[in-house]
Design goal:
Blueprint (H helix, E strand, L loop, with lengths): L8 H13 L1 H14 L1 E3 L6 H18 L1 E7 L5 E8 L1 H7 L2 H7 L1 H11 L3 E3 L7 E6 L5 E5 L5 E8 L9 E4 L11 H7 L3 E2 L7 E5 L4 E4 L7 E10 L10 H7 L17
Antiparallel strand pairs: 1-10, 2-3, 3-5, 3-6, 4-12, 5-12, 6-11, 7-10, 7-12, 8-9, 8-11
Helix pairs in contact: 2-6
The structure holds 2-oxoglutaric acid and fe (ii) ion.
Length: 263
């Protein structure tokens, strides 16, 4: 069902006071994030917000999603078999995902959980994207993200026995010239996240190698919101995986924020 959401400042203020009052929830989340490099933050986000983000993601991926089937050299030729929606198409055809991304409540919440200041991503195309795994064998293969933090909203997800769960290896370094992904997967403990449909998690994605296990059936649709650390605001960050992923088929990606209207 297409549930459109009208953004209200009152609702945003309500979330801010509610979340900042939940000392116990924030402390637990901060400790787990510090220990593991990832943490489920669903209980810090009202169910209604999670549900309207999920509805918008499902609507947009149906209407303006583009199929990608790639392997990426910078992560050791790991696959990206998926459908996705660019930041430009989300901003052009949606409302709630961009509003939440831009809200000070979001960066405030992430800063307290991360234990350091968290900022909107300075590279616009990477700020928020939607990804759907939809065919048997679809996977978001092993990779690191370009920026320190990802807030991932899981809109739909198959049961674990059909794949689609997140695996990760914290405290790893992305050497783009020699990613050695297979070696890390062989030598290190692979953590499995317990996040299902309706959940939201935060991950330190620049130092946590991660992937989504291939699905066997069903669908997995997520919104990934990227955030930067203070040091990344002015640093030179390259975007080769992102630029390959989001380029339009047959076209050279220029990074321009072009919009593909859904109707
Ligand atoms: O689907 C997920 O939970 C992870 C997505 C991801 O790693 C990404 O979008 O970079
Ligand atoms: Fe990622």
């Amino acid at each position: 069902m297409d549930q459109r959401w009208v953004w209200s400042e009152d609702e945003l203020d309500g979330w801010r006071s509610q979340v900042l009052a939940d000392d116990a929830g924030i402390t637990l989340a901060r400790k787990e994030f510090e220990r593991c490099g990832y943490v489920a933050v669903s209980r810090l986000i009202p169910a209604r917000l999670r549900s309207v983000v999920a509805s918008e993601a499902l609507r947009l991926v149906e209407h303006v999603g583009v199929r990608r089937d790639l392997v990426l050299a910078a992560t050791g030729y790991t696959p990206r078999l998926m459908r996705n929606v660019t930041r430009a198409d989300i901003a052009c055809n949606g409302s709630v995902i961009e509003a939440i991304y831009d809200s000070a409540t979001t960066t405030q919440l992430l800063s307290v959980v991360a234990g350091e200041p968290v900022f909107r991503c300075p590279y616009e195309p990477e700020q928020f994207v939607i990804t759907r795994l939809e065919e048997a064998g679809d996977t978001h293969g092993w990779h690191w993200d370009d920026y320190s933090f990802a807030l991932v909203w899981v809109a739909e997800c198959p049961p674990n026995e059909d794949g689609g769960f997140v695996e990760c290896i914290p405290d790893t370094v992305w050497d783009k010239a020699k990613p050695a992904v297979a070696q890390l997967v062989r030598d290190r403990v692979v953590h499995k996240l317990s996040v299902g449909a309706g959940d939201v998690y935060l991950m330190r994605t620049n130092t946590t190698l991660h992937r989504v296990y291939p699905i066997r059936r069903g669908r997995r649709t997520i919104v990934n919101m990227a955030f930067a650390s203070a040091g990344e605001l002015n640093a030179a960050v390259s975007h080769e995986t992102m630029d390959s992923l989001w380029s339009r088929p047959g076209a050279e990606w220029t990074g321009a924020d072009r919009c593909n209207a859904s109707n």
